[in-house]
Amino acid sequence: MFGFGKSKPLIGMDIGSSSVKVVELKQTGKEIEIVKVGVEPLAPEIVVDGAIVDTGQVSNSIAKIFTENKIKTKYVATAVSGHSVIVKKLSLQPMTDEELDGAIPMEAAQHIPFDIAEVNLDYQVLESPADSPTMEVLLVAVKKDKILNYTNVITLAGRTPVIVDIDAFALQNVYEYNYEPSPDVTVALLNLGASVMNINIVRGRTPLFTRDVSVGGNQYTDSLQKELDLGFDEAETLKTGITLPGISDEARLPVIKSVSEIIVLEIQRTFDFFRATAGGEHIQKLYLAGGSARVYGLPDLMKQELGIPVEQLNPFRRIKYAETGPIGELISSQGPRLAVAAGLALRSFEDL
Question: In order of start, what are the domains of the chain with their CATH numbers?
Fold first, then answer.
């Protein structure tokens, strides 16, 4: 939503409901490699539905992750999602850049359910067919208090927030760099966090439809705690497929599956709405990222119910790192969770 030229080194920082994730990258010749990567867990109810409730706790966690990983870079790119974020695709009469700058606030007022004075606006002109009578413009609006909610905690931790992006677009950024998509391939990118699921449907490098849904991994934890009378940590462990003494598969698997069915239903609804409004677009594949991407049985259920291939998104597919040692171990265990942070860190580079 705001920023400087992309040549400065940046820390990509994803502040989620369950943890803070950071990634720092550097360019060596034509290759990108990891400099630093870290994850710091957050206690429950510190960040709720994308809103930072306890700024002190989150800023302390940010300061800790920088200290423990010896990160010296000061500038931070972060991202937001949820109900305070509106993304709309507009079809407008062709006009000059100057005319478009003047038209955007008036267009936004017709499409955004907030007072225009309360939001930051940004837009991007999308590629349209040469014979198209209209120009396609992607409009993004984020409530100013939402942006301040995130930038204040970063400042409080002694760092400088310079870019505020959208989770769904950071996910697209990491997908584009790592998978180099063909212009005619339409895929769904899904970031399943603890409390919010970001869905971004893209054709090649063009975003077609984005939606944030208030469901996520916390629902597995809550259901397992309630149904099996467990503590938080036990429920967190069970949902990844690890077994615990005294808890049978017959007890835990139906609970996990029931939540997975709710999540898959939300995805199906999103796909149905997209297909109804996108003139016959066919989603060819789903890439799954986020901390809940590895919930036991979820990818298989998605594949079965949605009828398309499902693949875990690898945010470091084309990014170099030492596979042995702390960085390799963290990526091996938590790679999909780092997708948004990696996409934000890629903002450092001009030519990607």
Answer: 11-221+255-348 (3.30.420.40)
